[in-house]
Amino acid sequence: MILYEVLRLYPPVIALYQHAYKETKIGNLSVQAGIDLTLLILLINRDPQLWGDDAEEFKPGRFTEGVSKSSKDQTAFFPFGWGTRTCQNFAIIEAKIAFAMILKHFSFELSPSYTHVPYTVMTPQPQHEAQIILHPL
Ligand code: HEM
């Protein structure tokens, strides 16, 4: 839930671009051939109409009932893209393994020197880096 909430507020891929090679229907939207679509993940992930008035807040509990029930639209959360091209399964397993290996040996806390200034250079990242203090267990 924490990983999903981080990906909601700070999606590593902030937008996806899709090209319609042939006329396509998406719900009641008709997309002509040749149209380029930009799917603004970052904006969709923070839209209060989808996530509620607390959309800007870090609340992992919104994923308690799974990804599809986390927002008002079951397709609103797609930080890994959609369908056969998604790398969600592999990336989440990899992240869980990495966290398990770290948490086996260390507890950690955010350093008081950390300042929260997310900015985007290709991908969102902490402008002044993220200082973490590790405590060996
Ligand atoms: C937080 C982790 C990750 C996020 C948020 C992420 C997100 C994405 C997104 C949004 C796409 C575009 C999907 C589309 O075209 O619709 C993508 C594609 C891809 N990702 Fe990731 N990814 C992550 C981790 C990884 C990892 C760990 C790997 C491999 C080691 C990986 C390999 C790929 C590859 C090969 C593609 C291209 C797939 C294709 O075009 O068919 N990703 N990823």
TrEMBL record:
Example of a GO MF term: metal ion binding
Superkingdom of origin: Eukaryota
Keyword Heme: yes
Transmembrane segments: none
Organism: Forsythia ovata
Compartment(s): Membrane
Keyword terms: Heme, Iron, Membrane, Metal-binding, Monooxygenase, Oxidoreductase, Transmembrane, Transmembrane helix
Entry annotated with the keyword Iron-sulfur: no
PANTHER family cross-referenced by the UniProt entry: CYTOCHROME P450 72C1, CYTOCHROME P450 FAMILY MEMBER
Protein name: Cytochrome
GO CC aspect terms: membrane
Record-linked InterPro entries: Cyt_P450, Cyt_P450_sf, Cytochrome_P450_Monooxygen
Similarity section: Belongs to the cytochrome P450 family.
